[in-house]
Fold these 2 entries.
Entry 1:
Amino acid sequence: MSEVIATNQTILVVGGGISGLTAALEAAECGKQVILLEKSPSVGGRVSQLHKYFPKLCVPSCGLEIQYRRLKANKNVRLLTMAEVTQISGEAGNFTVNVKVAPRYVNENCTACGECEKAVGAEFDDEFNYGMKKRKGAYLVSNMAYPQRYVIDPRIVATDDGAKAKAACKYNAVDLEMAEQNLSLNVGAVVWATGWKPYDAAKIQPYGYDRYSNVISNVEFERMLDPFGPTGGKIVRPSDGHAPKNIAFIQCAGSRDQNHLKHCSRICCMATLKQTTYVKEQLGDNCKSTVYYIDIRAIDRIDDFHRKVKEDPNVTFVKSKVANIVAGSGDNVVLKGVDTEGYNRYANEHDLVVLATGMESTVPAGVLPAGIVINEHNFIDLDSDCGIYGAGCSSDALDVNRAAQNATAAALRAIQVVNRVAGQEG
Amino acid sequence: MADMKIGAYICQGCGIGDRVDTAQLASVAKREGKAAIAKEHEFLCNAEGVKMIQDDIANEGVNHVVIAACSRRAKTEAFSFDGVCISRANLREGVIWVRPDTDEARETTQEMADDYVRMACAETKYQKMPEASGEQGLTRHLLIVGGGISGMTAALEAAKTGYKVDLVEKTGKLGGVAAEMFKKYPDKAPYNVLADNTTSAMIEAVNANGNITVHLNTSVTKTEGAPGRFTVSLATESGASKDVVVGAIIQATGFTQYDMGKLPELGGGKSPDVMDQLAFEKMVKANGGAIKKADGSEAKNVVFVQCAGQRSEQPGHLPYCSGHCCMTSIKQARYVKEAGGDATVIFDDLRTPGADGEDVYRGGQEAGVAFSKGKVSSVEAAGKGLKVNYTDKILAEDSTIDADIVVLATGMVPNSGPNPYVKLDLEMAEKDGNADLVAKLKAEVEKAPPSILNLMYRQGTDVPHLKHGFTDSHFICFPYETRRTGIYTAGPVRRPMDAHQAIEDATGATLKAIQACENAAIGRAAHPRSGDLSFPSFRKEGCTQCKRCTVECPFGAINEDEKGYPQYNEARCRRCGTCMGACPVRVISFENYSVETVGQQLKAVDMPDEFSEKPRLLVLACENDAYPALDMAGMTRQEYSAFARIIPVRCLGSVNTIWITDALNSGYDGVMLMGCQKGDNYQCHFVKGSEIAHIRMSKIDDTLTQLNLEKERVQTYEVSIADIQRIPQIINDMEKLIGEIGMSPFKF
Amino acid sequence: MSDMNQAMVQKYRSNFLKEVEANVEEGTWVKMCMQCGVCSGSCPLGPHWEHPQQELFMMIRAGKREEVLSSSSMWMCTSCYNCIARCPRGLPITHIMHGLASYAKRLGLAPKNQPTSKFGDIFWDSIAKNGRVNELKIGVSLYFMNGFSQGIKNALASRELGMAMMKTKRMSPTEYFGGHKCKDLSGIAKMLKKAKEFEAEHITKFGE
């Protein structure tokens, strides 16, 4: 790895999802020096795992393609993948950031030709597909992966497969000797954009996510729509691979709930409405969707999307937080609860249940310096002079549009800090 | 610039060397492509390969580089050479990865590769290095229109970043709606408490800031120029006027509360004790927290009716949700509780999203605000008070609740200027003689609001509307993708939002405005072709003043001079090439993207004769969606016809029909245009590129008829970057179709 | 009792929610319900509730005083705590149900001969008198709650269970005549008296 040059006029952006990419590029296109860190082997984050965005139903990779092109073209941004911040100390204008860079075991010689992948045998759960599929021990994260460079799973490095991968590479790109690196960066301001993870659905005990194969999470449902995903783009029941006929979507699965996440995750209502359109598009009249909800939060001008879905005769809305799920006939399950609009008790059998799991912030404990306030929902509070700014879902549960907007604002705050430093030094 | 010297570098790696004869490619590059240097390399993107190219640039005077290797999307870091034109022949994703490795396929695969080398050489031959025009300097100065919380935030943030600001406010004071608030929600967790209104402190900060000049009672009478060099005329009510020069503009003109007079069934306008949220806020503020009826007596019971005239398809109602009203009603209901009264919020869906929202909802409940899911049917006078009739959706029964005051949560109506496209559409309708449409559009023009920016743009005075009068970006991932470069809208004029979001939004917009100034100064394009230095120029002597370019530019970048010649404004231009595609006399070009750079590529393809059974399909593919999808088709080894020749284009809008005519005349058997989704839900980042291409191609039928060719030979498709399997299928279908209708007779 | 009811009606004329908040154990939580219905759906006896928990909360807010207090619904609660465990807002629903039932009873509005209510009375009488529960007497009293012939029918229906219990010495017919008592009956009586004083104090305090 060539040397990473950073000064206290450099902006560090942590997280290469849509928020981090936005913050990094917007700052860089203002002429600022930016280091962008991403923990995984590819940037793109959660949005790269989505089939479509609501409410336009456009494809996330379209926007990512633009972002990657901006990234490739802009020499102000230095991207480090597989890099994780372990500690930040100091103050606005002068932070010391400790970074741990995990070995990729593949260097920049890689042409993404794919020969190493063919050579290795071992397979592992594919993180990109939430473990719904296997991937090889040498792999490219996805078709859109950027950097377009392979990764060797550390679990094969010391095995025959590791040697096979190395032998298969004609370009000396596989480097099994690569070791973890520790960097210390001096930066002026930090944009923290490590995003969110889906709330662990297994913790919602009454819904039996870990007991019933046909109870899945909304992020898993999303992966089913990818033609290169675990089901080849087909909406199917995990138990038998058949197309479902009667899907239940359960809202607030882990959100707005003091037993789980106290906050409203904002996106899940729209995400479910969007997913009902997938069902309609792929299965037409052969599949019904039922949405169990507390409040449908299709906020502001996208409410018309909500109304459009409501007009679909194959989609039913039930105002109810589902109480529990029990086994039904065959692999079906039965949802029990009360429709609170007029007290209607139900026990509805469905052949697939999608849990609209909430957004859990990934802001870590003990990494940011004292004085940076992480609130009870684990989001970073805004303090305009502190030099570390939460962006996107590190600041609140946000949809893509608001995350990008918020990340743009965070980038300006960071610029103000490095400008101040430049003014003092210049 | 020195004489052109083309260096062609052919990679043998990733299986290219095994699958095609690279020596032959080198010879094609030299003989046909006129490359002075043509070298093969077994691993071109490694340090040694790159150095070989760099050495030739440094020592041999190579200034046009052809990289025949992988896709232009791959290995960009390695193949990035300053100061030279680069063209990429896509032999990996575009040839060997989409063709089977079989003996039968070998010949056609080689032909593909040969052609891509010919095309890359042809392209670079007609490319020049773009250089900034120097049309504008660096102007670190912003104009902000609107002195509410969004505008003041933008002003303060810009000043903090070292920019000067002229802040223009129509009324006699700063603060806007935010200043009217009795209390607000805190900026930080926990959100379940109320905080004091800090707007007055913000106004003081604005007034005290040496970088900010405030213009009260002022409006914008004229805006001319482009990012980096806008000249804006300001006029005060008293008649004084002043010109300021700014680099970029933020419009933060806020919203107007929806007129509750349109809701008589809810008592709007019928009783002074039925009020909208803003009136209630003002009343509470004026009374220092006491809740008083119009007659001055204390109000004990206040009912809040959510979604009043909103989320409704009824004519005259707002079809959208204003987003903030649930939060606002909860805040106001808390005023009532604090004053010792009772408050009930009647809602359909309680929309308090995010971390702050749910805190606010709980806070309201803790304070004793009653919430009822229901639908209000009417509000009527009852004795001295009011009666709210509603359906309780939980208890499933009709119910009535007495109230001293009823607050209607009516929505936000954006304070936008007139939508410029209504006037432009009217212009077109008048030209077409469409009387019905003319009447309809005329009526719309008449009731349009007065202009806010008074842009002296060929395409109208203001920022285009997206939907319902809001000036939002059409794109999910790019909230600031404006259609008027260097002019950003922020706050509730962009989309419905609360004060907290407006502050965030204005901060983001400030960055974009600053970025626009910085980029304009160095001639760099704004998003989405950010960094592009090329810009359109035209041969004046060839121009027929047809105005197609000035009308079709999706960004209103082109003006007309007195004689009707186009005036390009580099910093307003987004470099999509729609003007180039529009020009019937083909006088518009970019340094590195022109009628020739594409036209010569398609002509460079070797055309087998009519009896060869080797048709040629020209594919013009949007570089952002269709082309990456084709790359990924290669990566995932989807096979497609060896007869396709793919040329990426900046946007389908840049496709000039001459390319189609040339292709047909050169003997292509089919021409395929692949762009993005068009229509209301368009996905073209140049707004109308795909749509315009569809329209232009619908007119190409005449040409086909003249040439006695079947219409099916030219087709336009809407595709997305995710159509990795579909696009190869479309190409294969075209090959099949050609098989059915036969080869083109125009092969010479 | 009905005097108290009248007094409460007067006192909280316009606002049943306030009455509940002031007089019902954990009543202040009622306002926190967001009508998701997970409690109602989670109740194992749910189908037997005329008005499920979340609906009761809405009815309280809507001022349906008579309907709520005279309802048998909250008497259905078996204290399984499913609702509390699942309530996303942390409402102590079980306690509120018991609080409502107890308040209704205090006001004399609880439904007559509601089995849970009746069981409570019999249980209390037994334990207050003897310092311990006489299971046989409670059983017999409950069987004959609705008349002699119904009582015989009830007894016959459970006769196998009864015989089995006698065989395994879990029940002795002699218990019906007197039965066990605790040693310090007067101590128990004193204790209960004191408890009643506390309760009265508590109610007065709560009621204000």
Note: The two ends of chain A are 31 Å apart (CA to CA).
Entry 2:
Amino acid sequence: MSATADRATPAPTPAPAERSTFQKMLRQKRFVFGGIITLAVALFALFGPLFAPYGENEVVGPPYSSQGVFGTDYLGQDVLSRLMYGGTEVLIIALLATVLSTVFGTLIGVIAAYGGGWWDEVIMRLNDVLLSFPQILLALVVLTSIAQPKAWMLVVLVGLSNAPRTARIARGVALGLVSRDFVHAAEALGEKRSRVIVAEVLPNMNAPLLAEAGLRLTFSIGLVAAIGFLGITTDPSAANWGQMINENRLGLATQAWAVLAPVFVIALFTIGTNLTADGIAQVNQRGGDD
Amino acid sequence: MSTAAQEPTATRTTSGIAIEDLRIGLTARPGVDVVDDIDLVLRPGEVVGLVGESGSGKTTVGTALLGYTRAGAAIERGKILFEDKDVLGLPWQQVRQLRGEEIAYVPQDPASALNPAIRIGRQIVELMELRGLGTDESRLQGARDGLAEVGLPNDDEFLRRYSHQLSGGQVQRVALAMAFLPKPKVLVLDEPTTGLDVTTQGMVLQTMGELCRTHGVAALYVTHDLAVIANIADRVAVMYAGQIAELGDRDTIFQSPTHPYTRALLDSIPHLSQARALSGIPGRTPAPGARPSGCRFNDRCEYAIDECRAAVPELHDVTPGHSVRCIRAGEIGTWDISRGTVPDTDPDKKRDIILSLEDLGVFYGHKQVVFDVNFDLGRAEVVALVGESGSGKTTISRCVGGLHKEWTGTIAFEGNQLGHGSRKRSVDDRKRIQYIFQNPYLSLNPRLTIEQIVKRPMELFGIASGKAATERVVELLDQVALGPAVLKYQASRLSGGERQRVAIARALAAEPDVLVCDEITSALDVSVQGSIVALLESLRVSRGISMLFVTHNLALVRSIADRVQILNTGRVVESGPVVQVMESPQEEYTKRLLANSPRID
């Protein structure tokens, strides 16, 4: 019978290489458009301080005057300059918080999915308890008890309040993977559990997690700005998009730009990150990468 | 091509339906055809089998009869003549009327065609309302008659069921009943029995055949399974790479196949009556756009000469009613069905037991699914576990492979009890028993390269690492007939058969003594199955590997196994050497399985 094996297949002619996930995303208008907006706002916030016409706390004229591009604020500081100074911290805190929530949430979700049974039940019910608190409330409970919050506290609080949401998504994605045969195959070989998670499960979650992270970034920006609006900042005199809205709201009727300018930037940025996340999710949904 | 030149054909009177010079192309890639040059006539009361491997375009031809193409494809040329009208030329309202009423379609997966939220009876009545059949009063009775015709119960209880409350065979027969209700003249069946157990498949096929013949329906039966075709079809069309390679009466096709492709297909199919040395067809079925010039089979054909590469051969008659698309049809000799048969394994062969199962009981939670299973496996021996779905055959294999933990009894490997689940086993046990999964599309991590996948067991068990391991990987890939070119590929770039070879290479990388093979060929084309079986056989002989082979295909058992365990609802009903069990089955259940298994011999 072995003689018949000679007729078996020679070297196969491979199917054409699949386009990589990133290449597919680049063909998505949504992704490209959102990416450009996100990048533009991020660059504006990051390099703004270098190009600002005035200093962060420099009084350039009477309060709520129309002097300069966006006028002046309640202390007579230049709104455009403060806008250019006020983004860096918001964005960096939001970004770090998103990274934290993605890492932490993914870990919780994957462990719950892979552990299954009681593990899954206990972890996810605890997760639900956290989920039932409004995000902002969770942050405020801690922040109000501290006189002067540090930037890292904001990162941790925003990150942790986002983590349960990421965990739900991560669990859902991982559930579909842990029952696949290649995970069973790794287990039958006796791979360590940690290695099964890191080498077999996680690499297959890239795209959905990226989409989720984009969405979380959107929420983080909003949350950080909201906390700023409520007057909780690391440095009360420093410019901060969220805080700017709060400071200048009394002058909304006379000098609307002092409020609208930070509102627009925040809105633009969240639209940008949201579109990007949506683009990733769509590519991912069409299931091109399998 | 101009269709105007063929105008005179409209004068003839066809009964049934005829496909003329059909060509379907891809809208995105002009000049690339999915199917080309298809001419086929379906006469009333006749079942024509359209057989081909995945990618041959058989389903495309089937749906073209309804004037339908899937998105991205378009009919570029040709006619579908039904009652002297060209279906393709009709306005869409009339085509819509025609579909279902005159030309019915039974899909591969009927469960997805039935609405899960509507009761069966209501669904059938609704169909009749849509088609304007019967009156409000008579429709319910019509539904009952339709169900009775396909051998289903038709009491109120049954009519009130939802589709998920029916078994797979019942759902398929409901779909058949619904297709037959408007009394269509043409029926297109797209692999309607794939995924059904053999006994259920036997029942559905019989029902279908009877209905077609009594109602004078012209049926096109699309399938990849030659054995099913041999049981049901009157005429057979063999498709390859979008063209009909051979067309003729069933007996002609199976007794004197003339196209090299038909012969190669038949060579790769196991028989129930005798063990065979199966062989595959080298290479893979070319995708549209990647098909060779000249005869489309020339790059895989063992008889190919230069002339075959020059021009596309015409489908020509060799005898009346038997046409072949091969220029060497007369030169390549005759074919014999007994070609490739080998003696059955000697039932009295001396055995050296390596693995034994005693009083195995398996549970899912509190539910026991396998009861008191006892059997053993000798060195360099293949034991087949055979049964229908739900018989527990895969469950048993998962216990042996360490994938299922809830069992009682003894599984002893060289006399030592194996742990429940792979994590409770010694490294040595895990290394020496390797499991190969049914579906190669799920068992390879899509993010890893083939090299990483095959190398991992070696690193894990300390067999080799680094450069030495890579060399071993190349060696193993060579053994499973894959070139070193695939090393850096991800699994998504390989075909099903190639993936399964990688999965086999991964199992071999651990240098096992026992391979547990769970239906490893059921997701693959027959020609690929042939080459995988040949590969396993050569591994058994050269390395002395023992195999536990789980399958539902009794014919395959005859060719590959030494001993067989027939399972029914978690119990072994009959066991012994393959020859003994298959030649003189003692149990009613075994006899029924054998009788219902489609056979070509």
Note: Residues 87-115 of chain A form the longest helix (29 residues).
